[in-house]
Amino acid sequence: MSARYAIEKFRFGVYVFFPITIFYYFNRPDFYDDYIRPSIPVFYPTEGVNTTLPHTREGNLALLDELKQKNKQAKAAAAAASVEADAK
Q1: Distance between CA 69 and CA 75 in Å, rounded?
Q2: Is the distance from CB of 50 to CB of 60 less than 8 angstroms?
Q3: End-to-end CA distance of the chain, in Å?
Q4: Separation CA 65–CA 59 (nearest Å)
Q5: What is the DSSP letter of 28?
Q6: What is the rounded distance in angstroms from the CA atom of residue 8 to the CA atom of residue 53?
Q7: Which residues, 6+ apart, have CB-to-CB distance to 62 below 8 Å?
Q8: CB 60 within 8 A of CB 54
Q9: Is there a contact between 51 and 59 (Cβ–Cβ < 8 Å)?
């Protein structure tokens, strides 16, 4: 019967201390500086970046054409890189 109580004590310890340990690990300032702070510009762009969307049909079409052009350039660059890699 004492083995059962020992396992229950272990489970209780895990249930109590696991969240505390996780909170301690992820709430340290060095973790924040190393992992969170570098990703902030990805989610919150700087003021110089245009983050507004057009509200008119012409603006939407212009944005669509711009995105298609960027996509075409990215595909061309990827194809050129794969041809270059195949040549080696």
Answers
A1: 10
A2: no
A3: 69
A4: 10
A5: S
A6: 57
A7: 54
A8: yes
A9: no
CA distance 6 to 16: 15
In the block, residue with structure tokens 């350039």 = 73
Distance of CA 6 to the CA centre of its chain: 41
At 48, list the tokens: 């110089």
Cα-to-chain-centroid distance, residue 77:
24
Question: pLDDT class for 19, splitting at 50, 70, 90?
Answer: very high
- Residue written as token pair 């696991």: 18
Do 31 and 25 form a contact (C-beta atoms < 8 A)?
yes
What's the confidence (pLDDT) of residue 45? 74
20-73 residue pLDDT tens: 999 999 999 999 999 989 988 888 877 766 667 889 999 999 999 999 999 999
Task: Tell the residue number behind the tokens 């310890």, with chain if given.
Answer: 13
DSSP H stretches of helix in the chain: 2-26, 29-31, 40-43, 57-87
